[in-house]
Amino acid sequence: MKDGKLALVDLATLIYVAVSTVAVLVFTGGDRVGSIALLSAHILAVCLVLLAPQARADGPTGRFAGDWYPLLLLGAFYAEVGVLNVDVGYHHDLAIQRLEQWVFGSQLSYRWIREMPNPGLSWLLHCCYLAYYVILYASPLGLWISGRRDAARFTIFAVVATFYLCFMVFLFFPVTGPRYALALADNAATRVWPARAAQWVLDQGDSWGAAFPSSHVAGAVVATLCAVRFWRPLGLILLPFTVGMTFAVVYGQFHYAVDAVAGLVVAVAVLTSLNAGATRVAAVALRPSAAEEAVS
Question: Which member of 29, 125, 185, 295 has the greatest number of CB atoms within 10 A?
Fold first, then answer.
């Protein structure tokens, strides 16, 4: 990165932009104005990626911007998923509901809050749900501020790679989730302030068709486990909120239970792959060269 080359996070972002560009071309159909607007945004994103290596070489501020820009792009990419899925107009909720029935024996996301309308439990879980953005950004930011810069960069890459994988699934296998596909509950659990606040947040910025796998669960788990690995006190602070949020997405009827399970699977797969890759790189770096072997 010091020599102006693209970092892994830059390459991952370019790959995602390429995939989402294909989705724009395929799914926008005759909406020429909409497709031009989205493709123009993609061009801006590519320009931002290409400027990142130079930014990292231009001092602390540029270094921060060059390392953190992918996290700032996630909101725009997430919103685009919803726009494209609305244009597509179909979803796979019935297949996921059948999977839910097969795995759990019932529609857990529909039944739980109705059969256990406990205001205290609702307060606790919905507060964890609202802590999602804090979890997502507190992990890399805490590592960065504490001077663990390489750990922060690894965490940023792991988080955005997780979201890019989820977004790709959303684009080509849209699932709206139980919040849209099923009637919402109305009881003591849904009337507490955190539950109403969570619904308001989703009304303002939810993305249609972005339920399976749960990117909330996947992203938060990756961020938290990175914090546990690189700075245990921070990770242990975030861990209970992440566990609570994992249950909250089902209790609050935001995701099917299988969405949450799939999010956990994505998180574990990403971290396992990245750790294996880092181990291989370290092994190669420590391997003696031919010249060293000849001397020995």
Answer: 125
Helices (H), the chain: 8-27, 32-56, 59-88, 93-104, 108-115, 119-130, 132-145, 149-172, 178-181, 193-205, 215-230, 232-251, 257-286, 290-295
- 237's CB contacts (< 8 A; 6+ apart) are none
Q: Which of 88, 93, 87, 79 is nearest to 207 (CA)?
A: 79
> Within 13 Å, how many C-alpha atoms sit on residue 16's CB side?
28
**CB-CB contact of 49 with 10 (8 Å):** yes
For 89-134, the pLDDT digits (tens) are 788 999 999 999 999 999 999 999 999 999 999 999 999 999 999 9
- Residue 158's nearest CA partner among 283, 18, 266, 285 is 266
Cα angle at 20 between 141 and 248, to 5 degrees? 50
Helix (H, G, I), strand (E, B) or coil at 183: coil
Q: State the number of CA atoms in the 13 A half-sphere of 211 facing the CB.
A: 28
Cα–Cα distance for residue pair 225/221, rounded to 1 Å: 6
pLDDT score at 31: 66
Higher pLDDT, 86 or 94: 94
Task: Enumerate the β-bridge partners of residue 210.
Answer: 175
